[in-house]
Amino acid sequence: MRLTIVLMLLASCCYAQNKKSWNGKQCAVVLTYDDALNVHLDNAIPLLDSLNFDATFYLSGYFPGSRNRLKDWTTAARNGHELANHTLFHPCAGNMPGRSWVKPDYDLSTYTMQRLLDEVRMTNTFLESLDGKKKRTFAYPCGDTKVGDESYIDQIKNDFVSARGVKSEMVQLNNVDLYNVPSYGINGETGEQLIALVKKAMSENALLVFLFHGVGGEHNLNVSLQAHRELLVYLKQHEKEIWVTPFKEATEYIRKNSHSK
C-alpha cells in the first residue's frame, strides 16, 4: 500500500514537472519577424518594448529596411531583441509553382552552393557589426532548404545555433529538429485565432513559433495592428504560464534540456 502511494506521488510529481517543462512554464512562444521591414521598427518593436518582450528579427542584409535603418536595428539589439540571419539577398527557388515573382539574379534553383554559403556568412558579418554577437540563428527564405537539388541544411550547421523552417506545427521539448524548427506563418488571422494557437500550445506543453511579415502593412503577408496587439496583450496577461523568448534562447534551452539535435 505504501509503495503504491509513493509511486502515485512520484508520478504526480513527474506530471507536474512535465507541465512546466519550458523554463518552468507550460509552453514557449517565440515571436519572429521576417525581412527587416520598416513596420517592424515602427509598429512591432515599440509594442514589444512596452510589454518587456524580446523578439527575433530575421534580416536580409540588402533589403532597404536593413540598409537604411542601421542605427535603429542596433538600438533594437541593445534593447534585447535578436537580430538573426535571413541571407543577404533572400534567394528563393524560382522554379516552383507561384514563384514568378522571384528575380533571376536571386533564384536559388540556379545558385551554386558556394555562392549561397558566402552570402549567408557575409550576412553574419553584417549582423555582427550591428550587435557585436557571434552566435546566430537562421531562417530559410521562403522555407527553401535546397540549392538546386542539394540540401544546404548540413552545410550551415556550424554557422548557426539553430534554424527556423515554415511547417505549421507545434513541437514538444524532446522532439525538435533544431535546424528546421516549425513555425506558423501569419497572414490575416484575427487576434482570437492567434490566441487560440497559444492556448493550444499551453494545453500541449509545446513550442509555438510565430512567423510575421507585415505588421499593419508593408507586405502582402500581413497581420493587423489590432490582432498583433491582442496577441501580445494576451501573452502579457499569462506570463506565469507562457515563456515568451527569442528564437536563439528557446533553441539553446532545448539543446541543454532535451535530446533534440
Can you tell me about this structure?
The protein has 261 residues and is of the alpha/beta class. It has a single domain (22-257), classed as Glycoside hydrolase/deacetylase (TIM Barrel). The protein is 40% helix and 16% strand. The chain is built from nine helices and twelve strands. The chain has helices at residues 2-19, 38-50, 64-67, 70-78, 113-131, 153-156, 191-204, 225-237, 247-257; strands at 27-34, 56-59, 82-85, 137-139, 146-147, 150-151, 162-164, 184-185, 207-212, 214-215, 222-223, 242-244. The strands form four sheets. Strands 1, 2, 3, 8, 9 and 12 form a six-stranded parallel beta sheet that branches. α2 (38-50) runs parallel beside α8 and α7 packs parallel to α8 (225-237). The chain is globular, with a radius of gyration of 19 Å. It starts with a helix and ends with a helix. Residues 3-17 have low confidence and may be disordered.
